[in-house]
Amino acid sequence: MSAGITIAITGTQAVIRAIKIAQREANTAIDKALKKSAIIVEADAKRNAPIKTGRLRSSITHQVNLRKQEAKVGTNVKYAPYIEYGTGVHSQSVRGGRTTKWVYFDKKGKRFVTTEGMRAQPFLLPAYQKNIKTITKLIGKAVKKNVEIAGKISQ
Q1: How far is residue 88 CA from its own chain's centroid?
Q2: What pLDDT score does 60 carry?
């Protein structure tokens, strides 16, 4: 081209770097809120868990998936749902439980036992319910920080 106008954009690399830094800061705020929320619920679930051998209580843990931005609190103990929701006629499970008594053989006592099931001893759901306001505040503050960071970038 013998004659023309050149349009050049400068400083884009600095803007891209600033956006990446802001994104990391925003994710860090959410990650911290999720971790703190999970730790709070885990602690209360452990306090709520009934103790016979201590296995259930010691198995309660949390996992945070930063990519999905979610936190889970739970246990891998197979009998935990029976403790949380109860069994038989006492079941609070959405699937319900048995509606009648049943008989099983107790090998230790060497006798037959009739039962209606076991009453629920919830430990996870009450821990979550007790802390929902705190969790909402923690995540709300993190989101607010993200909005503030986004506002600074767009100026």
Answers
A1: 28
A2: 98
pLDDT of residue 54: 95
Q: How far apart are CA 155 and CA 151, in angstroms?
A: 7
Token pair for 127: 């821990």
pLDDT of residue 26: 74
Q: Which of 45, 33, 43 is nearest to 71 (CA)?
A: 33
CA distances in angstroms from 7 to 4, 10, 11, 16, 17, listed in the order given: 10, 10, 13, 20, 22
Task: Write the DSSP string, the chain.
Answer: --S--------HHHHHHHHHHHHHHHHHHHHHHHHHHHHHHHHHHHHHS--SSSHHHHH-EEEEETTTTEEEEE---TTHHHHHH--GGG--STT---SS-EEEEETTTTEEEEE--------HHHHHHHHHHHHHHHHHHHHHHHHHHHHHHH-
- Residue 130's closest CA among 42, 60, 70? 42
pTM, rounded to two decimals: 0.78
